[in-house]
Write a structure and sequence with these properties.
The structure is a homodimer. The first copy, chain A, is an alpha/beta fold. Chain A is 47% helix and 16% strand. An eleven-stranded mixed beta sheet of chain A has the order 3-2-1-4-11-10-5-6-9-7-8, sandwiched between helices. The radius of gyration of chain A is 21 Å and the shape is globular. The N and C termini of chain A lie far apart (49 Å). At the A-B interface, helix 8 and helix 9 of A face helix 8 and helix 9 of B.
């Protein structure tokens, strides 16, 4: 039974539609999902003709336009109603598919989703999350941590940070199968008094949510240690952190070249380093590990990295399928609903309204 | 002529007073400075007795108390007027020394300086800066970038960010001898429209400062590339970024152990990696490179890393001496003064006042 239907933006990503289609073929061979490929009908059919697959598993939906990585997301989503990512989001919003996967630009996916897929009631802000490999000091079965928000919002209120924590915890609990994920707030010190009024308030709220395993603040130096499962921060900070890590990963690979040019005596060491560099790059290239979920919508949205290869696209589709079968969105909805209905948070809601009207 | 007098907190740092004193001995042998060692007179004299040096170059000033790394900086600076770092800051504030060097806790150095050393007139907020090694894409003679603020302030206004840019540029221009340092704002995108109202305003102000070589926004992934000389950000973000890099540097070293445990087939690669890892650690261990300047005071303050060894302490003292002889504080004062007197910024000053009264 292919009861789960995934809308896949066939035209998104840096590597062209053929890579996306190869990824879709990978996914249906390993996962009980039905895929709707959205984009240029002829191009998709041509690419599909290279593969043998069960015709019931893949459907094509024509979309006459595309949004490239260089287009302004805001203008394009408004002016191109037939762009593949927009059509895909509309399909999901109309209930004709259960989840959306796109390797298009983050902005175009976020805005298309926001336009057509309803937000979960009581969710104030959606958030982009990302997974990245860590030293796994928690000794989990895998070695990832989960960071949100990494850019859907620039700044947000203390209560919105608390909602991110609830959403991230529900996602990690379902998808990674960790019953009571450890959640931390990213801050400039471990003490609850650190980081200014908003962070202090976020700490206080999080500490009072009984259903959440909040372990306190962590600092930048702890991010890669893997001491918690979910790290919560504002989009401005999360975006800079994740890109700093991306840059650090690249730097490890490029340090070799630098040293080659500067000191003869390092040559031998660097030659020996080559294998190690490839290993480090592999571990730190988080684009391999599925995609970044966009949390807070009634349907699951997965943003695959623009550079995704077929394997990464396949992983993103499988991830979307797992999210649907685990009912991640339903659990987020229940937990956010419970949080908002606790009398303790009544005054916090008022404070958030005040914050919104002032900012 | 030992005309430059550096007050050195002999009791600060994780490694004890003997390391600080060894660092001081290193510094006087290489730099025309006179050092005043502040702390427990007997302990200092005992440690000094191991070395041969010109007695005119080193003086001891007794301070009966200490502030440890674990003490609350705020409470300690208030309650221990005879702590070595407090006495050292007072000495500098009274004009009896030209600069302060301490490897004590950042908080205790910042608060002691703030209590006794006047801020440069028109400087709204002092900032902690840090240097870190990069890929040096600018092809400078050394391969460092300069990031501020990394934690003296949590949040600040657009104009305060502009002042940080001016202070950082003056420092880098003097100390590294780069005539027109490239300055960038750390943001979530390169476009001037990114990052919310405050970042847009900071971009606009910086772009209008004719004496500044402002090159625009850079993202997290560009930090380690070394495409600019000075990176400006709020203390909350700067602190998290620098600690994330510190954590990434440690992780590179520790990945080896992780892999050893998980896969036999990696053993050979990791054995080969060993030399490379040591190289990467050396390059990324920015604690070797002098200390973090605290900018905005009338006298130079250098915070050496708590883990400093004698070499790092010596470098911090030499750096302080160079700052005094280059008159870094004088140049910061002139440039901030000129900035504040430009009629263009009149309305910005009013906006900052409004921001202050609201936050």
């Amino acid at each position: 039974m292919n009861s789960i239907r995934i809308a896949v933006d066939a035209m998104g990503g840096d590597n062209g539609h053929e890579v996306v289609i190869k990824g879709a073929i990978n996914a249906i061979s390993a996962s009980p999902v039905k895929i709707i490929l959205i984009g240029d009908e002829k191009k998709i059919a041509d690419a599909l003709s290279k593969y043998k697959y069960n015709g019931d598993d893949i459907e094509i939906l024509h979309a006459s336009e595309e949004i490239s990585m260089h287009d302004s997301p805001k203008k394009s989503v408004e002016s191109k109603p037939n762009a593949s990512v927009v059509v895909a989001a509309r399909l999901v919003g109309e209930g004709k598919a259960d989840a959306l996967v796109s390797a298009g630009s983050t902005g175009s996916v976020v805005l298309s989703a926001a336009k057509y897929i309803p937000r979960i009631s009581d969710v104030r802000r959606t958030a982009i999350a990302t997974v990245f490999p860590t030293m796994n000091e928690l000794k989990r079965d895998d070695f990832f941590s989960f960071l949100l928000d990494v850019g859907a919002n620039i700044h947000c209120s203390a209560e919105e940070l608390a909602q991110f924590a609830i959403m991230g915890s529900a996602y990690v609990s379902d998808v990674r199968g960790i019953p009571n994920p450890k959640v931390a707030l990213l801050n400039i010190g471990e003490e609850s008094s650190k980081g200014g009024d908003k962070m202090k308030e976020a700490y206080r709220i999080l500490n009072n949510i009984k259903s959440l395993n909040f372990v306190g603040n962590i600092e930048g130096k702890d991010i890669l240690r893997g001491v918690v499962d979910v790290i919560v921060t504002e989009g401005f900070v999360g975006n800079i952190v994740i890109k700093t890590l991306e840059g650090a990963s690249k730097t490890v690979g490029r340090l070799g070249k630098l040293a080659f040019k500067t000191k003869i005596s390092w040559k031998l060491g660097l030659f020996m380093l080559r294998k190690g560099i490839n290993f480090v790059k592999k571990v730190t290239d988080y684009s391999e590990y599925g995609g970044a979920p966009l949390l807070g919508f009634e349907k699951m949205v997965i943003i695959a990295h623009g550079r995704s290869n077929a394997k990464a696209i396949g992983n993103a589709i499988k991830l979307a399928g797992k999210c649907v079968s685990d009912d991640v969105c339903g659990h987020i909805s229940t937990n956010i609903h419970n949080f908002e209905r606790e009398p303790e948070h009544e005054y916090t809601r008022l404070a958030t309204k005040r914050y919104r009207s002032e900012n």
